[in-house]
Design goal:
Chain lengths: ~300, ~300, ~300, ~300
């Protein structure tokens, strides 16, 4: 399937058929949500369009909403290969490597899927692009303990997150809702009172079983990386580590420390909880001390 | 073999045979060092006795010192099983697991041993109790690049370190030279302005291939561990990591942070370079920031 | 008047007359409190004795407690010179310089005294040794807004603080209640990774109108002052400033900073709120950065 | 006198008379410097023009340079009122209040002026717009100890600073040399992990005898002040203090601290040494701890 991008202005004036054709896939297997939103035109912003679709979903009957939930594929399901999954779902799940799981991981997902379906009668829905694999599994296990009412609300909230991301990609126009986060850093040399240039900075995602390299950069003359460590997409909820190679930096400056140096590679480990937020994680370091914090 | 401890006062008055019998093993296979020190009696302190033995070694002929060096066993040598190693050497090398190396590690040691012996004509000597396995290998490779003169001096310096440790164990008396180091920590809660009690603190040694657990403790009401993290022995030169479990601490205090918390397990990684020194590595932490430094 | 110190053991066995003679002054002009405590003998600790006297006061009639409150002198009153004040009160008020006020300050106190007496019908009572002059005035003004019930309770609480201090001085014995606080500091040099020795540290009390020098010390090899900055008495509630002369310290170490240095005299300003507590206020400093916190 | 601003392009094409008329005042009472630069036209940037004038000064004879130095007025001289000072000098000295000195200060300046003239035979020259009054006096006293050669070089360096500032005001065009500095701040709340909005920030200049208020601002939602604390002019070499009112901030957030709060008004005192530099002096604060540093 070819994904096409539509202009918001065109959506405000086109006929019902074109409108639903353009937006019918934003809510998984539920073109009736787009149909409901059609009556609320025009939309000044993409965010307004998203809000209208959410309203259409919220004001539908209980049975329709449940059908919407049931229309979603299971995570990491073998059904995927059978073709029942929409192209959007396939792409989203692939972003996390859910289509390339080991046998063991697949078994874990299937156990969770089975337990979840047995308990709630519908598939587990989560906006995978807002989570690391570890965070996704944590949420999966945690939500298994929810009451059915709470869990239906949680599922619909995730449907909203998924729709927002799809809409931002499918529609061009003013006032797009925020869907991307950002991670940045800054290294200050507190021994010489200025930015630390030339410091290697390595970002990894920390998972239960392994680390995944996300970025390997060098600080510039301002002590920053030329580009944010992460940007342009949701900042996946999960645990990260930045390794600051300050031992090599101070050695190159000829600052005599101990041998081996007290501080060499400084790991800063933190979790993001807000995929649309900005996480600034700086390091203030001398050869013998450092501080870090969530900055802005 | 039963190790016996002698009193310094007894050494000051006994006959030459007993003196050498008691101290002959302090310098590996070189009772003549003890003989040389015999003439310098009496000794007010154990440190004086050590200094006298070092003087006896320093004033001997070049050939004797070289023979002393040659009298040492190779590190991790297969010769060890053949029984040529003294009991002291066997025990010291065992402290680092050098008698339980994998085939691969053994091969690496044998390569280094061969290269070293080819270059210098004597075995590599290092006071293993002052090093982690990684630090030992780093030193081995670094010292291969030394000139023969520099390396002979380095070897004799290590002989002195070894002798000091053996002497402190073999002789009771006043004025023992310092042979032990110390590692301590302290956790301050900067959000509530007091010591952080109940924080799990896990110390590991970091090596090229693995982590070794050294201590798993909980901070007391003063934010300290009841005992130092390390004490009573040389603080091995090498790389360590303290993992401070502050996420659980703040959660238990009901301080609302994000979910997942921005900071959970805070790793502080550092190297010690002074086996007889005191390393105090505190953590000042709020749910959103922390600082650490070499304190005192 | 000569103050005499009595032994707790003696108080446990002496006759009623001696008991009251020894302790009658602990509650201002109210020997009946000592009489009430006499019946509760023996006392294992001085703290028990204090608790017994507080109980005697608490279980007396409302009228007696009010009379007790009324028996206290006004703060900074001209009546003082007329001789109606007990020796204890005179000494306590003198510790804050309340007997050496300027005309203007005296006028302020008299205004507050008058307003307070008009509102509550009894004199303002506060344990002056637990406050700086500024803190005392702040409390005076704040408590003017209390309801009569709240204020009577506040007055009796202060009577208890006063009695505890008097008791600790009048009676020798085990288990004295804590009446002294402590202020200490520590200077760490984060540029060289060790304690900062030879740093001048000047402690002042900050008041509305002036600074009062309390201590002028130099850090020792551990980066601490040989004695605590304050100890052996209640740490008066109030505002303090420690001026750390780190510019001279780094200049003496030959660490090239800017000219003039970015940091020279670093003022750390803080308030104590717990006269019996320990305030540890360290400084972690490089030539370009510093941190401070309430430590332990 | 009306100050007129000339365009750099016009200076590149005008006749010698107009050129000297426009720039003759840039070097005090020394139009020959402008004449010397005339031959080096054209100038691509204002910085090039400044460099050309400096070259004209440097390649003149020793006697001419000495005359140039002698053509400057004394600082804070009574001669000022007699009209011998140029309008530029009058304005520059006035910026520091040198025309409004007390009798005592005037006496101090006259003592220094006399000692300086006796030692060097020419007036003390300093670019007053790059100094606070205290820094100016410090430099005056320090430079009195220079050798005559060192001091002549120092005087000419100051002449260059003065000329650069005058040139930047007198000539419009590309490539102006940097003459302005900047002071900025940022307040981070480490207890809640975000910028601290609504914090009062008061900047003062600290002098030997008094404080001068420079700015009284409130941090915005980013924890910054809407405008830099200082900008658009040289950042005078001297000592400053920023008072951060964090006690009120945390109280407004309802964060329970002690009463009185441990930290209320946090003073951060520092010196600037680089008038064309950027000083970023942030505060990271919780109710119980803070850190500051020269950032970027």
């Amino acid at each position: 399937m070819i994904r096409s991008v539509t202009d918001l202005a065109a959506l405000d004036t086109c006929d019902r058929g074109s409108f639903v054709a353009a937006l019918g896939g934003v809510f998984e297997n539920a073109p009736w949500v787009a149909e409901g939103a059609f009556a609320m035109r025009p939309f000044a912003t993409v965010a307004d369009l998203h809000a209208a679709m959410m309203r259409a979903m919220a004001t539908a009957g209980e049975a329709e909403r449940l059908a919407l939930i049931r229309g979603h594929p299971e995570l990491a399901s073998k059904v995927a290969s059978a073709g029942a999954m929409t192209a959007e779902s396939r792409r989203e799940q692939g972003s996390l490597g859910l289509d390339r799981l080991s046998e063991e991981e697949l078994a874990r997902f299937e156990r969770l899927n089975a337990a979840y379906r047995a308990r709630f009668g519908f598939p587990f829905i989560i906006c995978v692009r807002r989570h690391t694999r570890d965070s996704l599994l944590d949420n999966f296990e945690r939500r298994l303990a929810n009451s059915p009412e709470t869990e239906r609300a949680a599922a619909l909230q995730e449907v909203g997150h998924i729709a927002r991301l799809r809409l931002v990609e499918a529609v061009e126009g003013p006032g797009k809702p925020k869907t991307d986060g950002r991670l940045s850093t800054h290294v200050l040399d507190t021994a010489s009172g200025g930015p630390a240039a030339g410091v290697r900075v390595v970002l990894t995602e920390l998972g239960a079983s392994a680390e995944g390299l996300l970025k390997d950069a060098i600080t510039n003359v301002d002590g920053r990386t030329d580009e944010p460590l992460l940007a342009g997409a949701p900042l996946r909820i999960g645990t990260y580590q930045i390794a600051f190679h300050i031992g090599a930096y101070f050695a190159a400056k000829g600052i005599a420390a101990a041998s081996p140096p007290f501080l060499d590679v400084v790991p800063v480990r933190f979790a993001s909880a807000d995929p649309e937020g900005h996480y600034h994680v700086p390091l203030l370091a001398s050869p013998w001390s450092y501080a870090t914090y969530r900055g802005s």
